[in-house]
């Protein structure tokens, strides 16, 4: 222990190390603070020292070891000085200790974590001339010798996903050929990867940083790739012990299925009531088989059977079982009945024969019911339901035109759905709105009016404005409105509704006007997306669990749903690389078939696509290091710590940067491949450097 006092040495280069050793030998307690993972500073990067031309690391290493072992020196690496208060002889310093995510006291320095880490990043110790892993240490002789894990924060893809699937993690595992591990990581947040990989609207890709270079990563296609490889599902069927409480889920659509899954894992007994004779809800009735084959729904939903959930099909609330009975018999009820009624256009002639809503048309078709088809159909709307209806009608031999009141760029449908419709022969009329359905008892035409775009509305899209006197008529014998949907609340009349006719539920807890009844998905929000429905099911499960435990349902809910993140990718030096696209059936073949259109990625394409990921979050939290570390030293939940220390003196040895940023560009550095700084050249010269001591030009490695 110190006999005299304490000294803060700021900077762990050779100057700081030598000062610390001298002070420690004189009896002072020394706090050696270094912002990097290891002490050693710039000297550790040099090849030789001046003037003796001795090996730099050979001279430095013994001093590093001595500083690391000295009883009067406390190393504070990966740290920074926040503030100093006081006066000479009596300073109080605040030190921020950044988390290493690896326990120094346990780490043996074996490097197994780095060996299995799939993330590669430019290595700053090698002046970015080589790569290292997210789990790394600065150099072989580092002091401390323990590894650390670098994290930049939550990557944009993961933050934007309403259920926060770890996209970066499974993409990096795919890159490493660890397909089973990638699928297991997907299932940690999303139990339905086969369905999701086909129909998700991909908010993750909209947030992907790669689009700043070229195109977003094909995140959803990569999810589908690993799910498709699995012949027999390897589900984790672990559930908490039965807690004696029973939950009723009304509706076997995505929200209901997700809620059932999460609550069953928590030990609740689950019964799912479904009006149809099969699970899926709008997945089954609203999405055509060419986009979502029926065996795919069955494959993912089978997980719930394996977990022990009970399904009661052909059971409609109100007629087959009363809503009041559910409230009495079950500890809690979650209503996820979807939105199965097409919204009316609100124009004259909607009651004529030949007018059928897209939801009703798709439901009747998908359930195998008879539909009276016309020869020329007009589908009104620009969402995925409109595209599904149009592409289904084309396959049934109908001439189809889609009328949409904005331009293509404002259409909410997935771009590939629009492309698919065009390739299959669907015609489009943009900037037009329906005014009146023409005909006596049966449809013979549709009167429309031309539109122009004005200022953006609340959705951010430019508002369509009618052009007076621009009316025109389209011949048709079938009109399919696909402008919106609403829920059928028959049987749930005692629940409070919103002014839009949806179930009124608290936006945070999803609790309704009845204490033990919760509701979510399209029944509350109106027509949203599949991934939003999954998020609603998860939110409801969390609320029900808290409610039945008697805990506050509003605490800790701020991170649910899509989030913003400040994490940005470093795109300097990243060159454009084409996105790999999934294989598709030929349009001529698929126009006459309900076989699946999108066939997925080939293995080579999947690996190539995964390599396009910029690793915005650095550590992908794939957890491979956790499974591999025999010392149990990995701690992914470490947090920053601020420590206050009392010192009598402070020595500043912060080192230097050889260039200030303003003049680097003037000398062509980073603009031309073979212009290097002196430190870069030192690493090129070094036998332990990126080129193994061979003098190679960075531009062509010659």
What does this structure look like?
The chain has 702 residues and is of the alpha/beta class. Helices cover 28% and strands 18% of the residues. It has 23 helices and 28 strands. Strands 12-11-10-13-24 form a 5-stranded parallel beta sheet, sandwiched between helices. Strands 3-2-1-28 form a 4-stranded parallel beta sheet. Helix 5 (167-175) packs across helix 9, helix 7 runs antiparallel to helix 9 (219-229) and helix 14 crosses helix 15 (384-395). The longest helix is centred in the C-terminal third of the chain and has 19 residues, at 530-548. The protein starts with 5 loop residues before the first strand and ends in a 17-residue tail after the last helix.
Descriptive key words:
702 residues, alpha/beta, 4-stranded parallel β-sheet, 18% strand, 23 helices, 5-stranded parallel β-sheet
Layout of strands and helices, then pairs:
Blueprint: E1 6-10, H1 14-25, E2 29-33, H2 56-69, E3 73-76, E4 79-87, E5 90-97, H3 112-116, E6 120-122, E7 131-133, E8 135-136, E9 148-149, H4 156-160, H5 167-175, H6 179-187, H7 193-199, H8 203-206, H9 219-229, E10 246-250, H10 254-265, E11 269-273, H11 282-285, H12 294-307, E12 310-312, H13 323-329, E13 332-335, E14 341-342, H14 358-366, E15 376-380, H15 384-395, E16 399-404, H16 415-424, E17 427-430, E18 432-438, E19 445-456, E20 462-466, E21 472-475, E22 478-481, E23 485-486, E24 517-519, H17 522-525, H18 530-548, E25 583-584, H19 587-590, E26 598-600, H20 603-610, H21 624-628, E27 641-647, E28 649-652, H22 661-664, H23 678-685
Parallel strand pairs: 1-2, 1-28, 2-3, 10-11, 10-13, 11-12, 13-24, 15-16, 15-22, 16-17
Antiparallel strand pairs: 4-5, 5-27, 6-7, 8-9, 14-23, 18-19, 19-20, 19-21, 25-26
